[in-house]
Amino acid sequence: MSKSKKVSRRKVLAGAAAALGSAVFSGESGAQETTAPVDPTKVQGRLASELGQRSPHEKVQRIPYRSTRTSSHTPLQDLDGIITPSDLHFERHHGGIPEIDPEGYSLLIHGMVDKPKIYTLAELKRFPARSRIRFLECSGNGGRSYRPPEDRQREMTPQHADGLTSTSEWTGVPLANLFEEVGVHAEATWFLAEAMDAAIMTRSIPVSKAWDDAMIAYGQNGEALRPEQGYPARLFLPGFEGSSNVKWIRRIELSDRPFGSREETAKYTDPLPDGTARSFSFVMDAKSLITFPAHPVQLSEKGWWTITGIAWTGRGKIVRVDVSTDGGESWHQAELEEPVLPKCHTRFRLPWNWDGKESVIMSRATDETGYTQPSLQELMDVRGPGTRYHYNHVRAWTVRADGSVLFGIDPPA
Amino acid sequence: MSKSKKVSRRKVLAGAAAALGSAVFSGESGAQETTAPVDPTKVQGRLASELGQRSPHEKVQRIPYRSTRTSSHTPLQDLDGIITPSDLHFERHHGGIPEIDPEGYSLLIHGMVDKPKIYTLAELKRFPARSRIRFLECSGNGGRSYRPPEDRQREMTPQHADGLTSTSEWTGVPLANLFEEVGVHAEATWFLAEAMDAAIMTRSIPVSKAWDDAMIAYGQNGEALRPEQGYPARLFLPGFEGSSNVKWIRRIELSDRPFGSREETAKYTDPLPDGTARSFSFVMDAKSLITFPAHPVQLSEKGWWTITGIAWTGRGKIVRVDVSTDGGESWHQAELEEPVLPKCHTRFRLPWNWDGKESVIMSRATDETGYTQPSLQELMDVRGPGTRYHYNHVRAWTVRADGSVLFGIDPPA
Questions:
Q1: Which among B258, B278, B298 is the end of a domain?
Q2: Residues 340-379 in B contacting A (C-alpha not used; CB under 8 Å)
Q3: Which residues of A touch B135 (CB under 8 A)?
Q4: Are residues B105 and B195 in the same domain?
Q5: Cα–Cα distance, B109 to B372 (Å, whole number)
Q6: A231 and A292: one domain?
Q7: pLDDT score, position A26
Q8: E strand or H helix at B378, and its extent?
Q9: pLDDT exceeds cutoff 90 at A32
């Protein structure tokens, strides 16, 4: 939007000038209208407010998934750094976003425990809290890119391609503290996490994750959880696939085996080439994505540009991101920006002197376990063409000679 | 707000039941109406959206300063962790918030340089970027607490008392890169930073800060700067008093001396007891604030509670926060939450077993230079009762026997 607007002399005389803040010099015919932009140093500005708003020039927003609107994607191409503003954090829900009154909220923990207990929100908040900056990614993220080059949609942005990942500072109570209080039995190896949404989303989680770093989160980026993130409380499992981080959590049941719920049998398992399926594949492996240059950007000229993007892993810290500008022939180590936090988006940057020729740019992350993000072919060899979820293969963008950028590589001639 | 609403039978028959989602059992007279809360598992929830909204149960907001509305305070008592959501970041402006079209924006750098240059926003963004999670604090923050106990307002929240500090992830170009390109002269020791707001805010800054960590920031918490934070670009000086971080920056002039602008002579200097004033007191010294328990919270019972708050320093990292629950007689080291970042809010926590008696709780921060936050008396001895700005003395809260909390300590009997 431009502040430099043309207005007729009549409107000026009618007093619109002050409102528009424009200086207008117009002939009677209007044919020689000229305008000058507002000079913000000559106009008293807007005063302080209870809640800030974005500049009207900024149109950043999520994209809900087509007609079902059961998910929405974070605009990764519009973001820098690692924090995702809460109103842009991706969504995924199976029965819509429930309206929950926090006054009536409670969490039941029962099953193989000494003392079953019901916690109100106030009781949860009275436990010593923990805040952690961590990514959350849907395990189906990037499915559109897991196709042979000839079948792939090229005009995808980072948001379209991989927008089901975001990073927030999450605050809550360590689940271990609650498990200690209720006295979880030594034989209890799994727990069911159950939501109070219309889908009654349920997942089985290993108890070991509770003793590690699971939490019942009630805070996001300082304030209360957003409704679409599980308000007033959710399970948060750093590094685990999104769907296991059960939102609007109302019940936890301890057991010595998994529960075999719909969302861990019919869905959220990974079909393999031999006809079997990999189940309980919780951890999100190392992955990275270039967010600039990326579709729909068009580079205006050859010369120096900075390739940047995000890398993350559910297994700890990212230790290295390599970037190729020649389709994987050679790789260059990118700079990782501080802070490099475990199980968190990490920003990488690499200056690139573009020669103006068509170039295929790619990024490849390595985590602290030594694991490196596989190529599409390597992943397909192991998982087969029909697999679902956990698409962490290397992504590519094609920068064409006119500076425009398309997702993926050109199909074989 | 409660979801459990009473409705008449007539309204139910008229079809309101589905909209309200309530189960209603009513006698003809309506005298025996009973209601059941909505069961969110029985109702399809709201679908995905372009921009998220807070739960209607959450009323978190800034408080604009009285009638002038030239500032607004961050609701520190409602926040946990370290990140401040951008729409809750404190504001301070001297001529209101200008409306700036980013297409017409430019930054001029001139004066004692080899090649004066004008940068468009696109040109600034083409430089390699840097993102840093850093606090920003107004140097006048906490002035209301710099009074003898008998004059002090007791019913202040953390927001009222010290809400002019916030933390964001800031993205921009290091000013050093721009200074290298224009060729700043070796004799240039100061630069003027000038805003394009109605106040034409100007401040003189030492060039050494540019070679250290100053940046021209255009990003905040991933997205574009908010209008009240300098959209589309501001000077960001990690650790320096807020007013020197000139927003809506349009001009930088290099010189071999400071410029003596209004906002560094008539204001933003610190009067001393001998009648002189301390000028160019840029760096914000170590400070801390307990955000829970704090007014208007009322502890419901004696027993275990977690004292928590934030600590920060413009001189690097916080290395230690001590908490007293007996008015400064004894101190206990609080836990510092990771990540502990330089020039950034750091969250501290300390479990406290409250015995139900009136208690004065205080926090005291130490930074990596070895400097420890002074007491009010120590600060007054050095700066005198009439000083302004840089009020980093130790704060106290009085927890009364009924669990209510007041700012400060009881006045002398």
A1: B278
A2: 341, 347, 349, 351
A3: none
A4: yes
A5: 39
A6: no
A7: 38
A8: helix B376-383
A9: no
**Residues of A (111-130) whose Cβ lies below 8 Å from B:** 126-130
ipTM of this complex prediction, to 2 decimal places:
0.90
Band of residue B249 on the pLDDT scale cut at 50, 70, 90: very high
Task: Indicate whether B222 and B339 sit together in one domain.
Answer: no
**B298, B352: one domain:** yes
Contact B369, B357 (CB under 8 A): no
Q: Are B179 and B210 in contact, with CB atoms under 8 Å apart?
A: yes
Are residues A262 and A317 part of one domain? no
pLDDT at B34: 58
For B343, the 3-state DSSP assignment is coil
Residue of B146 and B166 predicted with greater confidence: B166
Instruction: Calculate mean pLDDT across residues B2-17.
Output: 36
Beta strands in B151-214 (DSSP E): 165-174, 190-195, 202-206
A258 assigned to some structural domain? yes
pLDDT at residue number B212: 98
Q: What are the tens digits of pLDDT across the range B89-126? A: 999 999 999 999 999 999 999 999 999 999 999 999 99
Measure Cα distances from A294 to A169, A299, A391, A398, A401 in Å: 27, 10, 19, 8, 14
Q: Which helix (H) or strand (E) holds B323?
A: strand B318-324
Contacts of B37 (CB under 8 A, 6+ apart): A101, A104, B3, B4, B22
Does residue B79 share a domain with residue B15?
no
Average pLDDT over residues A289-303: 98
Note whether B341 and B250 are same-domain residues. no
Q: DSSP for B37-71, please give it.
A: ---GGGS--B---SS----TT-----EE-TTT-SE
Residue B58 lies in a domain: no
User: CA B363 to CA B41: how far, in whole Å?
Assistant: 45
- Given this model, what pLDDT does residue B268 score? 86
Q: Give the closest of A97, A102, A338 to B57, CB-based.
A: A102
Average pLDDT, chain B: 91
- List pLDDT tens digits, range B183-199: 999 999 999 999 999 99
What is the count of structural domains for chain B?
A: 3
Least Cα separation, residue A43 to chain B (angstroms): 6
* CATH code of the domain covering residue A222: 3.90.420.10
- What pLDDT is attached to residue B344? 98
Question: In which residue are the tokens 């967010």 written?
Answer: A291
CA atoms within 13 A of residue B226's CA, in its CB half-sphere: 22
Alpha-carbon gap: B177 to the closest alpha carbon of chain A (Å): 14
Instruction: Let me know whether A263 and A320 are in one domain.
Output: no
Residue B369 covered by a domain: yes
Q: Answer positive or negative: Cα dihedral of B213, B218, B221, B222.
A: negative
Is A33:A26 a contact under the CB 8 Å cutoff? yes
Whether residue B357 is contained in a domain is answered as yes
Q: Tens digits of per-residue pLDDT, B147-184?
A: 877 788 999 999 999 999 999 999 999 999 999 999 99
What residue numbers bound the domain in which A116 lies? 75-272
* Element spanning B9, H or E: helix B9-11
Residue A411's φ and ψ, nearest 5 degrees, are -65, 155
Cα–Cα distance for residue pair B135/B121, rounded to 1 Å: 24
Percent of chain A at pLDDT above 70? 91
Cβ atoms of B261 and B199 closer than 8 Å: no
Q: What is the pLDDT of residues B69-87, one digit of tens each?
A: 999 999 999 999 999 999 9
Nearest to A86 among B64, B85, B96 (CB): B85
pLDDT digits (tens, 9 = 90+) for B48-72: 999 999 999 999 999 998 888 999 9
Q: What residues of chain B, 161 to 180, have a C-beta less than 8 Å from chain A? A: 169, 171
Q: What is the DSSP string of B250-318?
A: EEEEEESS----HHHHTSS-EE-TTS-EE----BPPPEEEEEES-TT-B--SSEEEEEEEEEE-TTS-E
